[in-house]
Amino acid sequence: MGFTTTVSPVVEFGLRAIGIWPGSPRSMLYRIYWTISLSLAQIFQFKFIVTCIKTNNFPNLVDSVSTSLPYSLLCLKLIILWLNQRLFNDILTSISRDWRNCNSTVYNMRIMTNKANLSHRCSMLIISVYFMAVIVYISVIIEFNNINVDSVEKELFLKMQFPFVYEFFPVYEIVMFVQFVQLLSNASVIGMLDALVITLILHVSGQIDIVCRGLLELFSGKREYKDATSAIIRKHQDIIVLSDNIENLFSYIALLQFLTNTLVICGIAFAIVTSIQTHQGYALLLKSLFFYIAITLEAFIFCFAGEHLSNKSRSIANTAYEALWYNAKPSESRILLILMLRSQKRLTLTIGKFDDLSLEVFADILKASASYVSVLLAMF
Q1: What residue spans of the chain are helical by DSSP H?
Q2: Domain spans of the chain, in order of start
Q3: Rounded to two decimals, what is the model's pTM?
């Protein structure tokens, strides 16, 4: 199967739906829709949180905070992306240029195609996990309402405090349908943005593989030295610029992700532990478990992307050393010193310019969440 871009069709559709894809018609209308939709949802969610604080309803407080923070994070993500539209356009332009230039050799085309294939599969997998989490979450709520059909107050998909009475037909059904649509659309957008991060990192990874291949061929006599040297230098510089653009776009998103995911994972873990003690523990456990997997996956994706980019950037210096530079003239092999020195500065994603994203950071998130759960259990 041939590809012409690393960005999968489902990710492109999602980017058009949030009004950030370049040249997309009605992008302003999409932005207005998401602004109004998320703003209203956040108002009602925060009103419920305030009510829980006033009534000292601790379990509902933790549950509502866990479901409202992903909405807040999504809203902030969209704002950051909209404000950095030009930077995002530059990233897509770089990707398109790389695909136009990859037809020089069969090997380069094979690398790009393999990365695109992997990117498309990862995108579908990530979005499917979020979609499945929403379906399970909704199914458990519906089953819970069916069991407690005589209950005066029916449970909603999302805990909200409305300025009107919603427990009666057909208002309750309308509210549930709107929340169902919003849950699916928001989960799909969250999964799409996570898939976008993986897509961009895989594209950079493919470009680094092309540079490494070019370095090995540079002193093997397969390519003209002067042309190959200039091509490798330009390609390496393009990789650095593209990586810096991705870092600038997602740096503060990663910071918000780090803060909110720690709290959300903590809240969901608390709900899982406390649900075991209830008479409907298995249903509540199933609802929280898939939600926990989705949120943990979101944190893992960002940390894995930073770790993979850092490790991949080191391979340029290693490949330069492994090349047959000792068979070349000193004037010809001198270019490797520049590449090796420049490669000492790793390409990476950071948490708001404070710290590098890595699997160690992901472990710290889980450890911090576990510590907070212990405190919440002591308070409960």
Answers
A1: 9-17, 27-55, 58-83, 85-101, 106-147, 171-218, 225-275, 281-322, 330-343, 359-379
A2: 9-379
A3: 0.89
